[in-house]
Structures are given as C-alpha cells and as structure tokens.
Amino acid sequence: MELTRRDALAALAGAGVLGGGGAAALTRDGFSEDGDHSERENAETDGDAAREEIERVVPALVVTARAVYPSAVENTGAFVETYAGTKLDSRPAFGERAAEALDGLDAEARITFDAAFAALDPTEAETVLRRAGADTAEPDPEGTTAEQVRYYFVNEVLFALYTSPTGGELVGIENPQGHPGGTDSYQRGPNR
C-alpha cells in the first residue's frame, strides 16, 4: 500500500494541524519532484534554531517510521517528511521536546552502531528503539528518555499512519474518524 499526499493531508487534519484546503498550507512536501521544501520557507527560516531542530527531527521520524511501519507500506519517507515537517513547523514546542528526546536516541545509536539515529537502516533503528526501551515504555512527553521516545517518535509516526486512509485500510478502518467516506462505506454490512 502506497502512502500519498492525500494520506499526509488526512493525517495532518487528524492531528489538528490543517483544516480546509490544506495542501496550500504544507510547509514541507516530500511528494514534490525534488523532495525538498520550498525556497520561500528556506528564506523565512534561515539561521533559525527551531529550523535546525526540525531538520534533525524529521529524518529521525522517517527512520522510526521505516522501522515500525508494516512492510506492506510504501512511500514512507515522503509521507513522514510531509506530515512531520508541516506539524513541527506549526508546533515549535513539540519540535523542541522531540529534539531533546532525539538526543537520547542518538546517544544509544552511537553506543550501538557508532552513528546518528537518522543514519541507521530500519533494522538497526528497530534495535536502537528496543535498546532505548521505547518498545515497552508508556508514552509520556515529560517522562524518561524511553517514554519521551515512545511519545515523540514511535507513537507520532504510528498516529500519522493510522489516521491516514491508507493506514486505516491496513487495520480494517476504511474511513478513519474525520475522513470523509461515501454512503456505501456505512450502509453495507460488516462482512463485505
């Protein structure tokens, strides 16, 4: 199943980041041909400390998604880059806290693989997430490093996936809450 720009917009709407038209409000669009954000955005944010944090966090969220998403999901990088880049731009405090949690992930990645977390392949990233305790921790934005990693990284990418129409299909939720569906989707029986 391939994630699309529509999925990213639906996930952003589900997170309360976008409303209405949405596509025009994307800060970063991983689905564009060059996969880069707009020149307008770069000009507005050059030298900004918040921009640097976002530039650190988004690749780490992409790596997290590649580690935790089901293997049937395709186009993960563009989807997460669009979702996370836009959300982090609209919620700088969230980005700051995620960057703090990323410091703990980077430390574990350097101990285990002598590399930054964002540079790991999905199997290595899964190992680091497990070693950091994020696989069993309760999500807590103010908690331990494991709880923060679970909240800001694992749960964030899973939320994005399962609030999208494509992600919802993976778990049998044809129309996630807030996603418009046709009358056919609620008029047919559950066994169809």
Number of domain units: 1
Give the uncertain stretches in residue-range form. Answer: 36-47
Total beta-strand segments: 0
Global morphology: globular
Order of helices and strands: HHHHHHHHH
Mean pLDDT: 82
Strand content: under 5%
What is the topology?
Blueprint lengths: L4 H10 L24 H7 L3 H20 L7 H15 L1 H22 L8 H11 L12 H18 L2 H6 L12 H5 L5
Helix pairs in contact: 1-4, 1-7, 3-4, 3-5, 3-6, 3-7, 5-6, 5-7
Could you explain how this protein is built, in words?
This protein has helices at 5-14, 39-45, 49-68, 76-90, 92-113, 122-132, 145-162, 165-170, 183-187. The protein has 192 residues and is an all-alpha fold. It has one domain (5-16, 28-179). The chain is globular. The two termini are 20 Å apart.
Task: Summarize this entry quickly.
This protein has helices at 5-14, 39-45, 49-68, 76-90, 92-113, 122-132, 145-162, 165-170, 183-187. It is mostly helical and 192 residues long.
Spell out the key features of this protein:
192 residues; mainly alpha
